[in-house]
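User: Can you fold this complex?
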Amino acid sequence: MSISSKPTNVQRSGTINGMRENMKKATTEMLVLFLLKQRSMYAYEMIREMARLSDGVFQFNTLYLAIYRLQGHGYVAENEKVITENNRTRVYFSITEEGLVYLQEITKEYRLITNTIDKMLQLDGAIYEEDAL
Amino acid sequence: MTDQQLRRYLQQAGRYLDCSREDRSRFAQQIRTAAAEIEREQPGAAWEDCLRVLGTPQQAAQEYMRAFSPDSVSRYKKQRRLRRCASAAATGAVIAVLLALACYWWFMREYTVVEVQARFAASVFGWILS
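Assistant: Here's the predicted assembly.
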């Protein structure tokens, strides 16, 4: 499954774009927390790493707002501010204890949902064979 | 990106924000912070590249609104509807009063002049006689 990086306003149900956007929305928080669990990062770095680790499949826009939302919930916190050699200030985020617990819970929920869907899809054409006979 | 592009972006996103002024202000602050970081990391980046990171105004607003419960959103929408109705009613009342005053002045203006002249003439005549 590839997710387009081009911004789109089409989020209607019944379209592939709509499904992509909904799936991205559903997994953004989990993936941000997953990345921050590996190490502290600044926001732009997270966007870059997300694209790199997914081989370009995931190119999230609106990641900044997701990060700030997680910060509001207390799952993510500002770790440190670093001034680079180019005099740029980078704000590094890290996952909190509450964030680790939340990540564990949503990862478990994600695996339950995706495994269930996979199981159902594997039964394609075989669910009602007995009725047909 | 320019200030004008950012202002237009925030204006367009504002159409999709169903929240208080304070929350809108917070949204604007978050977008400005994100835009500043994009500018730092990619100096001179094209606006389209920034949009790829920020999302379209609608996407950004919808992402921001995910933090709000459906109850608080519908409560805000109801309050906004009431405020708009009250504002429309007040505007209508003011216009009606002004129109009424204008009509009163239009129809009574002749009578007012005659009355003043008559009173003045009567008071002068009365003084002369006395």
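The longest helix of chain A spans residues 97-122. The radius of gyration of chain A is 19 Å.
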